[in-house]
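Appendix B, Record 12. Input sequence as logged:
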Amino acid sequence: MSINSKLYEGKAKIIYTTDESEVLLADFKDDATAFNAQKRGSIQGKGSINCTISSKLFQQLEVHGIKTHYIDSPAPNQMRVRSVKIVPLEVVVRNIAAGSLCQQTGLQLGTVLPQPLVEFYYKDDKLGDPLLTRDRIFLLALATAEQVDHITHLALQINEFLQGFWQSCGITLVDFKLEFGLDSQQQILLADEISPDTCRLWDITEEDPNRRVMDKDRFRRDMGNVENAYQEVLQRVLKVVDSKNL
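Logged structural output:
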């Protein structure tokens, strides 16, 4: 595989074209951002950690019938993916109240939701990625009703699998963000990444509200030990995946 040119550079990844028209190369960066890129920094090794975790989770999801854009990982910080047209919606699945849900509703941090909550946000930095209703999604022609229903169904399926997987890692899945894309056959594929950057992850064995945090909140809230938390998540993921492959 040869890399042709840079197609796109985002906050966490650089996407390159390759000599295969429907295959792209995602290069994961160590750059870290928060609050719509108002806070910037770097997390040592983050690119390789997030790429490896995402690769392992995409492979596990494929086994469970969830179609993703993942092809393979030629280097620790690189992932070959199928070319997709990203649906401009960030899909957030919440199991426990945290972050903006607490700020916007008054729910207490850590409140277990009676059922998973699926939310859609407009993927637009200039607008601050606002929360959307279904009618606003259709008004802006961001997705069809059928696509929204299918994405919601997939998000709940993915949540069910990830809850069990993270629990086997000794981690509680609080909430997480997903992105989906359409391939050349207009098939919806799970895209982007699943990592401590996109998931809220709490150590099951830790009751302290600060020490339990194993995700990007450590960077957002200046909690320290960010690299250690990411490394710990990686090691637990690899241990569980290795045990499944025995």
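The radius of gyration is 17 Å.
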